[in-house]
Amino acid sequence: MSLGSALNTAKATLSNTSLQSAVVSNNISNASSSDYNRRAAVTSTSLSTGAITVKIERVEDTALLKQNLSASSDDAGKQKFLDGMKSLSVVLGGEEYTAAPSTYLAALQNALQTYAASPSDVTLASAVVSASTDVANALNTSTNSVQQLRADADSDIQNTVAKLNQLLSDFEQANDSVKYATSVGRDPNNALDKREGLLKEISGIIGISTAVRSGNDIAIYTSDGTTLFETTPRKISFEPRAAYDASTTGSSIFIDGVAVKPGSGSNTTAKGRLPALLQLRDEVYPSYQSQLDEIARGLMKTFAEDDGAGNPVAGLFTTRDASTVDFETPQVIPGLAGLISVAPNAVAAPTKLRDGSIAGTSPNTAGSSGYSDLLYKYTAGLNTQMDFDPAVGLSTNTTLLSFATDSVGFIEEYRSNATSAADNTSVMLTKSKEAYSNATGVNLDEELIQLLDIEQSYKAAAKLMSTVDDLLKTLLEAAN
Questions:
Q1: Is 419 found in the same domain as 338?
Q2: Which residue, 250, 251, 293, 357, has most beta carbons within 10 Å?
Q3: CA end-to-end span of the chain, whole Å?
């Protein structure tokens, strides 16, 4: 090897080690960032100088990234759905169901049985009215809580849509930066990191798929094929509601004019938070509200009195606005659970319940204080089968007490299934992140080993430079 060739080799080696050490240092400093992909200095061989650094590559794994985005969407949807079911479980009073209507119905039945055994005891009559008030209050409170949950979900949807719009706007900038850097031959790696990080955030909001096009451009589509981003973001629109009641229908979310489909089922098919929120707001919460309304209708029917002409009229339970409702027909009356209350006449004179004269004609014509026929009838009525609206998703022919208990079971089944599903997707997401990190992330041990190799290369190049210098000195001395 000539001295000139040796000198060129040493200079190339020093240049390589400089670039390689910069790449390794950058990797180490970003080791804790989940949105950073490891860089690698790619070298090529030259006959005159040996190995030279040609470019810096960003480590990628398209298949694992796709799996990671999918796992992120699945987990985000299931976690949000589980959060919603936990909130609904709180409305029931937690694991003990202390605030569930079924709990207060059982207490009402016990109070009725006690009063029926001693119909002349005014204190026991007041206890029944008090237990009835607890039932009505439980239905009122549950209705208010359910509608507040719907309003909260609606507000969450509004905020999430705004967040998605912002992420897509940021994605456009990052995507443009990648395309520009690619077209002019600059390093696009930092822009690629940012773009990929935005994809991960977007996937948590709604399920997505991507398509890489010429010039390193990317198009984003939702899981059902709606275009979310193609050169520019697509319009995402949503009209929030100021408040909710049992008759309110929430607005749809539109992406490029196409409505987003809500999730379905107790373990939810929602990919991303938005479909899960739609399912909670428009399916789960309204279903429970309808069940509450049917419990209220069943109460009015069970404790109805006779108007004297053989027609049932609201007795112990009526509506707070004095509106007349058809409680005999097995059909949901939207919002009835929020309107039901104990009749003022019953509160003022509790013994009217015994006599059936709260609003109707008393069958206790003799005015006997020992009359208990109606009380036993009401007690039996709570355990007598009646028809319920099949649209609420529970048994269509069962007792009122069983229907109220099944309503609790409906919530708990959904919560239990949602918990299992969320646990599974959480594990899948963790494994997916680990696999992707192992393939594209920074391993500090490997980087430190590479740094030692670079150090050895630097020492060898420095030694070669020193040797060439000594040889040149010797040559020059000999020439003189």
A1: yes
A2: 293
A3: 24
Tokens of 3: 């001295």
Tokens of 238: 């949503």
In whole angstroms, give the CA distance from residue 314 to residue 345: 12
| Residue 322, H or E segment | none
Q: What are the tens digits of pLDDT across the range 386-402?
A: 999 999 989 999 999 99
Q: What is the pTM of this model?
A: 0.88
Buried b (16+ CB within 10 A) or exposed e, 178-212: bbebbeeeeebbbbbbbbbbbbbbbbbbbbbbbee
**Tokens linked to 446:** 């490997």
* Burial readout 344-365 (b: 16 or more C-beta within 10 A, e: otherwise): ebbbeebbbbbbbbbbbebbbe
Max distance between CA atoms of the chain, in angstroms, equals 145
Write down the residue that tokens 């005015």 correspond to: 367
pLDDT, tens digit (0-9, with 9 covering 90-100), for 152-211: 999 999 999 999 999 999 999 999 999 999 999 888 989 999 999 999 999 999 999 999
Number of domains in the chain: 2
Phi and psi of 467, rounded to 5°? -65, -45
435, part of any domain: no
The reply to whether 165 falls in a domain is yes
What's the pLDDT tens digit per position in 311-367? 999 999 999 998 999 999 999 999 999 999 999 999 999 999 999 999 989 998 888
Give residue 319's region: left, alpha or beta (phi > 0; psi -120 to 50): beta
Residue 265, in any domain of the structure: yes
Could you tell me the two tokens for 220? 């984003």
